[in-house]
Each structure stands twice: as structure tokens, then as C-alpha cells.
Amino acid sequence: MKQIVQSVSAGELKVVEVPQPEPGATEVLVATRRSLLSAGTERAVRELASASLLRKARARPDLVRQVVNRARTGGVRSTLAAVRSRLDEDMPLGYSAAGVVVTAGAAADGIRPGMRVATASAGHAEYQTVPGLLAVPVPESVSDQEAAFGAVAAIALQGLRQAEVGLGGSVAVVGLGLVGQLTVRLALASGLNVIGIDLRQWTAELAGGGGAVGLVEAGAATTEQIRELTRGRGVDAVLITAATSSSEPVARSAEIARDRGRLVVVGDVGLDLDRRRFYERELDLRFARSYGPGRYDRAYEEWGVDYPIGHVRWTARRNIEAYLDLVASGRVAVDDLVTHVFDVQQATSAYEVLASDPRSLAVQLSYSAPAQVSRQTITVRPRRTSASPRAGLIGAGNYAKATFLPALKAAGWADDLAAITSARGLSARHAAERNGIAVVAPTVEDLLVRDDVDVVFVLSRHDSHARLVVQALDAGKHVFVEKPLALTQDELDQVTAAYERNAGHLFVGFNRRYAPMVVQASEALAAGSGPITVAYRVNAGQLPDSHWYHDRRQGGRVRGEVCHFLDLASWLVGEQPRVVSAHGSGRGEPGLEEDVSVLFGYPNGSTATITYSTRGHRRTPKERLEVLGRGRTILIDDFQRLEIDGREVKRVPGGKGHRDLLAHTRRVVVGEASDEGHLEASFGTTRAALSAVAALTGIEEHSSRLPTQLDADSGVRAGFTL
Q1: Alpha carbon distance 422, 21 (integer Å)
Q2: Is 118 strand, coil or helix?
Q3: pLDDT tens digits for 221-267?
Q4: Rounded to the nearest 5°, which phi and psi values hold at 283?
Q5: Residue 544 in contact with residue 517, Cβ under 8 Å?
Q6: CA pair distance 210, 698, nearest whole angstrom
Q7: Whether the bond into 61 is cis, omega within 30 of 0
Q8: CA-closest candidate to residue 552, choices 510, 594, 614
Q9: What element of type H or E holds 182?
Q10: CA–CA gap between residue 527 and residue 523 (Å, rounded)
Q11: C-alpha angle 420/422/428, rounded to 5°?
């Protein structure tokens, strides 16, 4: 399918071919018929993308601070790699469209194939996956052209709702671009007296032609006109829909609002304000958040959990519904706002018009892709034959692109990357282009049936790991899966069974075992005997609320990251723990706490303590590992410095072992090395992590015991049981 993207670093606009996306349980797959270019938003995005790196930094100082903080804790090299990966991405454009439902997820209530819907939060593409709550059925009398305004109109409507002006009240709309014009028309349909203000004569006239009073901004003269129109009082509310870095629209709005009036910021404007203007008249300054309640809420958008109408009358979906109803009843008209329509093949021309024609207001793209499921494989470059094992990747997120793929190529796989797939397709295509991967497969199933894929690398979200491992093993592939291997005991049992019934190798991404400094430390410990004590401190740092780790379906940070440190402790001891105790901070859901301490007790008398905290100072290095015993004292400081018995060991490479693990994987697959003991350790780590979660939830009196002996009948692959 065709999708419009823009290079983050260069600002280049492209129409690319990507596989048709697959909807999740709460999503809808829609064949797009019309999509709307938002002049203000997309123009601003394109200008920022085309700017120099210095201008980007000045525009987003918040991101610069994030980069600096990450460099202090995670190292300059890895931070630069992550930044380059982000800057090298192709960004999808667009968020307001209409189309026909192709398929609907099981939990997308009220949506069925063949239904016309207005969509929000999906880009300019022939097919789009949309959250079920943001795919709104379109009344029969509303055209695709009108329905494509849905998301942008909801932004305007949410601004009006924030203004809280009743029937007969007065509002001023400052900035008469597309959102401003829609705001004017929706306000008029609500029975309000409307004044539209802009710097341009033609936009003021357009607003005036619909029944509002259109004014060209002229400072004090405009203020006086508004006073006359409002009996000397000023307007009840001002909706600021302009898009400018200047603070003048907000400052001017304070002069035309009545005493204790409301100012609602809808557009992206400057906010360097004089407090006195607001204080003297006790003005209420508010901000409208996109389409309405539910926007940016993961439970609403990703999980399909709607707000009860008795508690939240107007959600993002209901705002779009209200707009469509107003159009269907004839109380709001938008067709005259459409100045240009281009076929998706001419998308670059559409953006050129948006940039060059000052009178371009609503520019739309049209589509004609059939409303059916497609399984199109995208060939990026001609395939070639190779006697080496060929790799297929599932997942193309930030970790895959910034860390995993560079390590994979450095480990000897560079010429053997056969295919890649991802949930959305665009990220997979981008990774393929940048890394010489021949094919972008539309689905996991299409990748698994390929004869030129011998080894499957699973790099998707945590809740899919076990399922994809089972699928890939049953497809006759060798499998490498990023940690965690499984999120529940049932999942682990399914993986174990799949491994037993198939001949393929299975590798888990516990890479720290293979780090050069860990290898050196293990050799030093191997010279002695007896128990050891491991103390592992992790300054994990806080994650934003929107981070996917906070999605309970992904298992939390103990299953998802602490397992790394549990694994390394057991690897150094050389055994699996017999007793696992865990204590959390009590913040968050039981088992999903982010600040925890885990204590392992081993059969040989060794102990390991993992302290994982999100509350340390951001400049503190992330990981510090100390091992005492067997006549040795070992310190590994954030995998940048190794100290044995008080002396720093020079000439040992840093790094956390990503490349080394992947090189080991390749040697095992081609028969040049043995993996004996490695998978059993991964099974053991997974069970230990699940045991730690059980302890955090209060099961078995905060302690879970693991047997010290393997099942003699099932052999080493049976692993350990809780």
C-alpha cells in the first residue's frame, strides 16, 4: 500500500510502498477514501523536519535535555546511536480521514466490515489501523469529503467545550485558518454570537460569509469594534486557533475578553505573557487537548475502554459524532473550505500547494484502494542466494533499529538479513532500506513460511514473545527472542513444549552474560571455589506515564528488565536459585512495582541481591555490579570499567554483550559452537523472575522456593518448576 512519510532529518517527503497493517483486537483496518491535510500542523511539522539540527534543538529544548541526561547515565556512544536512529526515521503524516472498514478487531464494538467511518490519529495511507473508539460511523447523507474533516473538527469542538459559553453568548476566534474557520461555523451552529479575527482580509471575509463578524486585526481599532459589538463588555470567551511562535495572539485576546472571561488556547502559540493583564481582570486561561477526553489515554485509545457517558459526556469519539450529526442535519457546511483535491499518487504536489498557495485552506487526498485484506510483500532490493543461515526479524522499534540491528550486523549477519515484518509496516520498510534487508513481509505468518529464513529474531512487545516463539519453532526455524522469554508460567510451559517437539535452537537475549567484562570476571572466579556474594545496583530512571512499560499487558519492569540482572547474577554463581525473596516499594500495582529488591539464595550457599530503583539521581551510572568470594573482589561499573582485586583491568572492551551474544548465536546455528547450559539458564532465569513477581504479590508469604534438582526423566530441557 502507499503511505506518505517524511524524513525526520532531511524533511524529504516521500510516497512509499509498505505492507498493509494488521489491526489488533481493539483496532479497525480502514481502506481510506479521503484524508485531510491540516495546514497549520503539517506545515509546522514539515518546517521543523527541514530545519537544521541546531534549529531543531532550539525548537525542542526538552528533547535536548533528555539526550544530555541519557548521555550522562547510558554513555555517549549509545546515546548518539539512539539519536541517529530517531533522526533517521521516516515519520508518517496526517491524522484526519474517512474510509471503509475492511476488518475490525474482536473488541472494536459497533464496527463491522463495509461500514463508512471517520477516523482520527491515522496517517495519509491507502490503509490505516485506527483505534476502535476513533473510528466513527458516518451518516449516509455525509460525504467522504465532509467526513474527512472529523478529527480536525473535533479539535475545534473541544475548544468550544472548554470555553463553556451558553446559548446567546459571544466568542471571538483569533486565527482563521482551517481550525479557526471550523470553530466559527460550529460556534454559530451552537447559537453563539461569533467574531472572527485574522491578519488576512480573505479569511475574515470567509468567516463573515457564514454569519460571523469578520475583522482584520488592527490593534486598538479592532478592540473598539469588539466593544461596540458586545455592548462595551468584551466577549465571553476567546478561542485562539492561530499557529505562531509569537505570544501576541494570547496577549491581544486578554484585551477583548470581558471581565472574568475565558481564553482557550487551541493552536500552537507563544506563551510569554504579562501576568498583570490576566490578574487585573481575573481571566481564565485554558488549553484544549486535541479531539477531547480520551486523547493520549492509553486505556481509551489502545485498550478500547470508553468513559461512561454519565461521567464524561463529550469524549474524542463523541465530539466527532457531534460534528458528523451537525453536517448531516445541514447546520454545518464544510465543502466550500476544500480548495484542492489530489490523488494520493500526487501527494508531493498537494504539499507543494500547501506551502506555496496562501489561499490553500483544506487540501485533501483521494484514494481508491479496494476494501479488502491484502498480503503484499514489498521487495526492497533483489534477493540473493547464500549458503549462510538467513535471518528474519519480527519487530522494528527503536531498540531494534538503534541497538539490535547494528549489533547483528557487527556479529556477522550483515549479508544474511533476508526479511523483516512489523505491526505497522512503515517501520519495517525503513529498517529494511537502512540495513540492506531484502524483503518486507506483510505479516508474521508470511515471514515464517519463507524458505529463505532460517533464524527468526523476535523483537516485538513483551506480551507477544512466547506466542511468536512457539509459532516460529513450529515453523521449523531457529529462534532468538529478546527478553523476557515469557510473562507467565503457562506461556513458559508452552515454549518448553514447543522446544521439545522441534529441532530448532532457541536463544534468549540475556546479553550481559556475554559482555567482555563479564567473561573476564567469570574466568577470575573460576580459579577459586566456594560461594560468592553478588550485589547488583541498578539506577533505572523514571519512565513517562505514556511509556509502554506501564501497560500491564507487557508484564512490568521486573519481568521485562530486572530479569536481565537476575540472569547475570545466576550466571556468575553458576547455579539457579533455590529461594527467591522480593520486596517492593508499594507504589503501583502488586507485581508491577518499579522500585524493588530481590534476594536469591543458591544451593551452594551463594547469595545475590538485586536493587532496582527508579528514584536515583539522573547522573548516576545505571549499573554497578560487585562480586565477593573465592578470594576475589570484582567490580563492574556500568560495563565501562572493570576492577579485579582493587586493580583496574585495562584493554577489556566495554559494552553489554549484544554483539557477542549474536556472534555466539551464529556459531551455534552453523554448528561451530555448543549452546549447552545456556538455554537451561534462560529457562531458570524466567522462572526466577516469575517467582520474584509472585513474591511481590504476596504469594507464598513473600518467598518462592525453586527445586535444586532437574527432572531426571525429562532432562535438562524441562528446566525448573515453581
Answers
A1: 8
A2: strand
A3: 999 999 999 999 999 999 999 988 899 999 999 999 999 999 999 99
A4: -80, 150
A5: no
A6: 65
A7: no
A8: 594
A9: helix 178-189
A10: 7
A11: 55
What distance in Å separates the CA atoms of residue 17 and residue 271, rounded to the nearest whole number? 41
The DSSP H or E segment spanning 229 is: helix 220-229
Contact indicator for 174, 34 with CB cutoff of 8 Å: no
Q: Which residues contact 428 (CB under 8 A, 6 or more apart)?
A: 18, 19, 396, 420, 421, 422, 440, 441
Residue bearing cell 502559540: 269
Q: State pLDDT tens for residues 532-590.
A: 999 999 999 888 888 888 888 898 999 999 999 999 999 999 999 999 999 998 777 77
The pLDDT of 626-637, averaged and rounded, is: 96
Q: Helix %, strand %, coil % for the chain, to 5?
A: 40, 25, 40
Q: Is omega for the bond preceding 484 within 30 degrees of 0, making it cis?
A: yes
The rounded mean pLDDT for the chain is 88
DSSP string, 133-164: GGEEEPPTTS-HHHHTTHHHHHHHHHHHHHHT
One-letter-per-residue 3-state SS of 236-261: EEEEECCCECCCHHHHHHHHHEEEEE
> Which amino acid makes up residue 330?
G
C-alpha cell at 665: 548465536
Pairing mode, if any, of strands 193-198 and 213-216?
parallel
Three cell numbers written together for 53: 539540527
- Indicate the pTM of the whole model: 0.74
**Residue 284 grid cell:** 481564565
Task: Flag the least confident range among 65-79, 206-220, 314-328, 707-721.
Answer: 707-721
* pLDDT category of residue 354 using cuts at 50, 70 and 90: confident
Strand partners of residue 704: 580
Q: Please give the span between the terminal C-alpha atoms of the chain, in angstroms, as a whole number.
A: 47
